[in-house]
Amino acid sequence: MKRTWQKLVSYVSGDLALKLFSLFFAAGLWFFVNAGQKAAERAMEVPVEIRNVASELMVVNPGVGAVEVRLMGPPALLSTLDPDDLQVSLDLDGARAGTSTFRVSADSFNPPRGVRVTRISPSVVNVKLETVAARSLPVTVRLGGKLPAGYKIARLESTPEAVKVRGPASEVNNMTAVETVPLELDGVKGQTTREVRLSSAGGTLSFSPDRVTVSLALEEEMITREFGRVEVKAKDFSGRYTVTPRQVSIKLFGPKRILEPLQLGPDRVYLNLKGLSPGNHNLPLTMNLPREVKVLEQKPDRVRVVIGGTEG
Fold it and tell me: Residues 142, 183: contact at Cβ < 8 Å?
């Protein structure tokens, strides 16, 4: 029995000695690495956590996200620091609408042994709270870019037509509608359907849902254009002829993109005298127009032509 006890004591003593040796070796290694190095500085952005905000209140100054902390200590320690390990927590339990002020000091952090806080910016944090409001508001679709030349909007719809808005009461209660982010028109012709996010300027608003489906239909803009004093001439005719009247008025209807630049020269509006015998003729005009263009009116609708001589 005595022999067994001696073995047990010997085993425990040996294990304890090994543990003590490991501890002293680690401490010595740390001292060797850090003792010979000069203290260094490191600046980092440390997140600010806001806790225990009442459900009927919300933070409305988004700048309270982080503070800049300058630390001094051994380089080996500073290089291993994570900003999240130094996070600052602000407890707003019992706070009311308005501005709450918090002073951030070195005691607000828990850096590793050997590291100290030398500077905090800002050292005072103001948290502004405001009462929350919620309303259902219609959606307004914003358009970005320019409509294609000669096109207009035939239909513009959002699904759903209204969304629930939640945010600061001072902002929500003054709103009349919710805008989408711009729906770009570049390259759009005909119809398109897209999912578009809602726009929250400043980031204090939330929406339910936060996206809508926008249906957009473009159609060509149609116009009426009147051409006065269009010269009347025969095309591909070498004989002698006279025309009465020498000019006509023509009213056309068609796409704006075609009608606006259109010119009615002798290649577009002319008399076809091929195969006609000398004498008097009462003729319509031949018109070579784009197929999308329609003739609404022509004054007069026919002209008098004398072939082979001069009208007396």
Answer: yes
Give the number of domains in the chain: 4
Distances (CA, A) of 47 to 18, 63, 204: 42, 11, 19
Amino acid at position 170, single letter? S
106 falls within a domain: yes
Amino acid at 268: R
Contact in structure between 269 and 301 (CB atoms under 8 Å):
no
Is 136 part of any domain?
Answer: no
Q: What is the mean pLDDT of residues 227-245?
A: 93
Do residue 242 and residue 210 come from a single domain?
Answer: no
Tell me 198's DSSP state: B
Q: Are strands 124-140 and 211-220 parallel, antiparallel or unpaired?
A: unpaired
Q: Identify whether residues 53 and 127 lie together within a single domain.
A: yes
pLDDT digits (tens, 9 = 90+) for 29-74: 445 445 545 678 888 889 888 899 998 999 888 667 889 999 998 8
Question: Which has the closest alpha carbon to 250: 293, 298, 288?
Answer: 298
Question: For residues 110 and 42, is the Cβ–Cβ distance under 8 A?
Answer: no
**DSSP assigned state of 182:** P
Q: Do residues 68 and 49 both lie within one domain?
A: yes
Task: For residue 180, give the DSSP letter.
Answer: B
* Residue 188, domain member (yes or no): yes
- Does the pTM exceed 0.90? no
Read off the pLDDT of residues 92-148 as tens digits, 9 standing for 90 and up. 898 899 888 889 988 888 888 888 899 999 889 889 999 999 999 999 999 998 888
Alpha-carbon torsion (108, 113, 118, 121), positive or negative: negative
